Amino acid sequence: MSSAGQLSDLYAEFSKDVQFFLVYCREAHPIDGKNPGSKPVEDPISDAERRSVAKKFVADMNLEIPTLLDGVDDAVGKAYASHPDRLYLIGKDGLVAYAGDRG
Q1: Cα–Cα distance between 89 and 98 in angstroms, integer?
Q2: E strand or H helix at 23, and its extent?
Q3: With contact defined as beta carbons under 8 Å apart, do 63 and 74 qualify?
Q4: In the prediction, which pLDDT does 24 show?
Q5: Separation CA 9–CA 53 (nearest Å)
Q6: Residue 8 and residue 63 in contact, taking contact as beta carbons nearer than 8 Å
Q7: Which of 33, 70, 90, 103 has the most crowded Cβ, counting Cβ within 10 A?
Q8: CA 39, 86, 49, 46 torsion: positive or negative?
Q9: pLDDT of residue 1
Q10: Which residue, among 39, 88, 31, has the nearest Cα to 60 in the 3D structure?
């Protein structure tokens, strides 16, 4: 099962008790970047472009999890070392209760 499928399963099982949010950060492999990927996505240069790419990603992955958008300044990605992906559990007090490893 893909990581998106596993995440969707967790969301389905626990979303009544836990708030889930995905944060869409900088595209890891834009076609115009240092390590281009196979997806035909250019690196967005505005928040509007990033929003468009994020919407397509969420739709293509068939995700129902609420998704937030990191701006093109990558403030969230930098603060949480989000690449390639990370899982954080944040308590009601706002403190990080769990920080997962990369990937």
Answers
A1: 5
A2: strand 22-24
A3: no
A4: 87
A5: 24
A6: yes
A7: 70
A8: negative
A9: 55
A10: 39
Q: Give the number of other Cβ atoms within 10 Å of residue 22's Cβ.
A: 19
Helix (H) or strand (E) holding 7: helix 3-14
Backbone angles phi, psi at 59, to 5 degrees: -65, -45
CA-CA distance, 69 to 51, in Å (whole number)? 7
For residue 81, what are its two tokens? 């070392």
Q: What does pLDDT average to over the chain?
A: 81
How many C-beta atoms surround the C-beta of residue 41 within 10 A? Answer: 20
Q: Is the pLDDT of residue 71 over 90?
A: yes
Residue 20 has pLDDT above 90, yes or no: no
- Please tell me the distance from the alpha carbon of residue 49 to that of residue 30, in angstroms, as a whole number: 13
Residue 68's pLDDT band (cuts 50, 70, 90): very high
Task: Please give the Cα distance from 5 to 2 (Å, whole number).
Answer: 5
Report in angstroms the alpha-carbon separations of 48 from 9, 58, 93: 30, 15, 32
